[in-house]
Structure prediction request, 576 residues.
Amino acid sequence: MATSNSVTRSTKLGPEEREAALARLKEKELDILVVGGGIVGAGSAMDAVTRGLSVGLLEARDWASGTSSRSSKLVHGGIRYLEQLDFRLVREALIERGLLLQRIAPHLVKPVRFLYPLKKRVTERFYVGAGMLLYDIFSYSGGMPPGVPHHRHLSKSQVKKLMPSIADGALVGGITYYDAQVDDARYVASLVRTASFYGAHVASRVRVEGFIKVGERVVGVHAHDLQTGERFEVRAKQVVNATGVWTDDTQRMVGERGTFKVRASKGIHLVVPRDRFQSAMGLLLRTEKSVLFVIPWGRHWLIGTTDTDWHLDKAHPAATAADIDYLLEHVNSVLSVPLTREDVEGVYAGLRPLLAGESDQTSKLSREHLVGHSVPGLVVIAGGKWTTYRVMAKDAIDAAVDALDGRIPASTTQNIPLLGAEGYQAAWNKRGKIAKAFGLHTARVEHLLNRYGTLTDELLDLIRDNPALAHPLPGADDYIEAEIVYAATHEGALHLDDVLARRTRISIEAWDRGASAAPVAARLMAQALGWDADTEEHEVAVYLKRVAAERASQEQPDDESADRVRLEAPDIVSSS
Prediction:
């Protein structure tokens, strides 16, 4: 591994790199310490380190284990914000969408086509069409092409041809438009790894338990390594609080009232098999409260989302039977053959960190972000949306460097691709040759390229050394054994749950939620991480309890019951 004075370091993010990062965090004062390993925290670490600053990043659980792995998986401008006349937010998000699609992560962010069904012949087509035209115009306003086609108007017969499963009376026509989608958890893990590659000292499963103050100034944090139990201090000239829905809790550790409040809004999504209804594109539906998306997702559809206040456990938000029925009822209103509970493969729930305002409805609260220097030495970033993470990170680090001495360069992240992005298109063009050389199906190589980009070479090296790692996982044959090993050795996965829920999406894509894949994945992780037999067995047992608790919570009638049932499953790492 290269030293901290090198231009770049290893692309690996495994146990050795974690140990080296922790050693460095204990040693010397940093310029910037970021607390929170979701998309905004990871983005902040990336922004700071690529300005030439010394940077640390701490996360209490796994990377993206909160909101950032439980989104609608969309990189989008937000059609509904046009109606709220929030043109600045829409334009900003569409510019970011273009950057992510074409420059920063073309291997991870892909165009996705949607239908907006029309129910009125003239007025609605004109009104919605004008909004779509504005959407297209904004997408060009960043000085580069948008990376997706323009919107198009369709007749009823054209819609039926593209979406045979739509009910006859559901529409009079439609408008199609494009946005983009991403595996949100994989993106965050890649972003953390890229920040580490440029020199950031990153460590998951390290909880911040308090702030160190000299007078009124924050000069560091009290940290607790949950893997080993060790407690230590990390000193920094500036600390960035990027803890999302935990912002208020983190602010209370400083002993100061926060400059703004964050409200948690629960959104749930259903995963159903792609063959349950026939359509060449996704769907956007208006509901009485918000909008509902039906999103193509590999061999599945994602259906979401709800928008309800959540005041219970923030680490494990739970979907209720009522949440699931709400989504099924709304999507069934436009399908010729309705979906049932038996069609649901997976369910996941996440919390949006909304800036609290006057409105009682979470769907009306702002998706804008705010940055504040609540006390000297501590920058707080809150609100916002997944798509604009890079802008949020830039604003947070801008605020932090304002308080540092010396001339510090401006943000450069708009020009820096994630690991695996450079050369992706060339690798994609020779995917057939790669498949032939390794005796793999071309579809398997395409799957790897769209998850790892040009880092696919590192997985293929694992398969070259051990051909058995090309075998698919039981109950989840989209994924191969090499991906489990790679997650542990290169992607910072420390536990079975990290791999099945976030490095892969087996926990929501498999009918058994990963129960049959768990023993095989645990065996592979044990070999990679040096677990003994008891640890391997414990990891599987805890994962299976999580699956059982999530399934049981989804049968409950209300949030309180679902929360209680979900919390019956223990976490893999004790928080005491």
Observations:
- The chain has a mean pLDDT of 94.
- The chain has 20 helices and 20 strands.
- The longest helix spans residues 533-553.
